[in-house]
Amino acid sequence: MDINLVEDTEKLSLESEDKKITKRKDYIDWREYFMATAFLAAKRSKDPSYQVGACIVNKENKIVGVGYNGMPIGCSDDEFPWGKDTLSKLDSKFLYVCHAEMNAILNKNSADVKDCTIYVGLFPCNECAKMIIQSGITEVIYFSDEKRHKPKYIASKKMFNAAGVKYWQYIPKNDKIEITFSGAAWQNMSPSK
Ligand SMILES: O=c1ccn([C@H]2C[C@H](O)[C@@H](COP(=O)(O)O)O2)c(=O)[nH]1
Ligand SMILES: [Zn+2]
């Protein structure tokens, strides 16, 4: 058989094989991606009791701000206090820690966060609720509402209801989203190869 004909036949059969290839099925959906981003940011927190993360997303599904609870810039994580039941109120973390929502809003990489959605690990406190409302965010998707009985959090809901900010709890499809650097499908390209 003519060599060109063999090559053409091989090419054709490869092309028809290619047509059978469909997209991956086990990719994470947008909501999982945004909540997982909030959870990943929370891993940066130094707070021993609550690690909170927040991720702000615009109407085009673009992330425009991420933050976690931490000390303000210039206030050392090692010098400022992390305790809460301290003898002096001046030594309690409450006076110093910047909340995740506040950091995410202030870290925004867009002109504003109007009509955006914020994904948060913990339902926002009253101070964060005020910032969320004033910044124009219109939807809050939270993971945990465990502090809901505290006045601060009841106040948040009162304000969200009055301001027309929607809020609802995220129920994960998967309890675990794993990131394994060494297990990547394309590991042939990893630096050690
Ligand atoms: O809206 C909120 C509420 C709380 N946080 C952070 C701030 C603190 O670091 C902890 C809460 O600590 P407690 O020990 O429960 O007081 O969570 C936040 O980022 N956003
Ligand atoms: Zn807060």
Automatic annotation (TrEMBL):
This is Probable deoxycytidylate deaminase. The keyword DNA damage does not apply. PANTHER family: DEOXYCYTIDYLATE DEAMINASE, DEOXYCYTIDYLATE DEAMINASE-RELATED. Belongs to the cytidine and deoxycytidylate deaminase family. Residues 29-167 form the CMP/dCMP-type deaminase domain. GO terms for biological process: nucleotide biosynthetic process. One of its GO terms (cellular component) is cytoplasm. Pfam families: dCMP_cyt_deam_1 (PF00383). Its EC number is 3.5.4.12. Keywords: Hydrolase, Metal-binding, Nucleotide biosynthesis, Zinc. GO terms for molecular function: dCMP deaminase activity; zinc ion binding. Its cofactor is Zn(2+). Signal peptide: none annotated. Supplies the nucleotide substrate for thymidylate synthetase. It is an enzyme of class 3 (hydrolase). It comes from Danaus chrysippus (African queen). It catalyses: dCMP + H2O + H(+) = dUMP + NH4(+).
